[in-house]
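Workshop exercise sheet. Pairs work together: one partner reads the sequence aloud, the other fills in the structure field after running the prediction. Swap roles for the next sheet.
Pair: D.N. / O.F.
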Amino acid sequence: MPFTTTDRLPPFTGGPGTSSFARARDLRVVAHARELASDALGGRTVWCVAASPPARAAAAELRACLSTPAEDAIAVGEHAVGADSDADVELRQLAALLDDMLGGVAPGPVARGGLSAHERAVYAAGADEGEALLGAGVRAGDVVVLHDALAAVLAEAARARGAHVIRHVNAPVRGPAAAEAWAFLHAFEHAVDAYVVAGPAPDRLAAAMPSPSHVALKEVAPGATGAGLGWRAVLADVIGEDRDEHVGGTLHARPVVAVR
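Structure field:
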C-alpha cells in the first residue's frame, strides 16, 4: 500500500508570539534539512531538461534555486531539447500537443478516438533515440529532471546511464484530454524514478516514488528557509529511496537499468 509522509520546513511559523524555543528549533530543523540535502546531492549534477518555453522557464527557476546561496550551491546542468536539436519535427509536434493536453489547453484527439497507433510509434521512436538526444554530460548518480513531454523521451536513456530520473509536472488538471495524455505517456515512463508535483502553491511540493510506493510531501514556510530548500529536500528523498521496493515485507534494490 502507498504511504505518505509530510515534512514541514520549518515546523513552526516563527511569527509573532512564537516562543524563542520554537524559533531556535526552526533554525536547527532547517540547518539539518539543508545538511542532509547537501550530503545527498554532493558530487552529483542536477540536469534540467526542457523543450517548451514554459518548461524552460521552470527549469531555469529550478537551476536558480539550487545555485543559491553560493556557499551551499548544488552543481546544475542544462540540456535543451527543441527546434535546434535533432528531435524529429513530428515528435516535437506530438510532444507539444501532449503538453497542451496535460495543461488543459488543448481538447486533444479524444473526439477522433484517442491518440493513434502512429503517434505512439512516433513517440516510441523518439524514446529509442533518447541516448543520442541526451548528450554526453549525464553520468551515473546524477539527477535528471524532465520538465515536459519531449524531455520525457530521454527517461530510459538517462536511467540506463545510472541517473536518477525525475518527471517534473505541474498541479494535475482534470479532464478527458489530460487523462488521455497521461495514459499515453505512462506507457513510456517506466524508467521514471519519481514524479515531482510543484504547486499550485510554490511552497508545497510532492514526490511520488512508484517503486517504494511513497509520496513525500514538503511544506516550506515562504521566505523562512532560504531558496530551494523544498526542492533540495525532495531530491534528497528521491536519491535515497527511489530504487527501493517493498516485496513480501522485505526491502529489495531496484535495478539501475530500466527493464524493457
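Discussion prompt: Residues 53 and 82 are 10 Å apart (CA to CA). What would you look at next?
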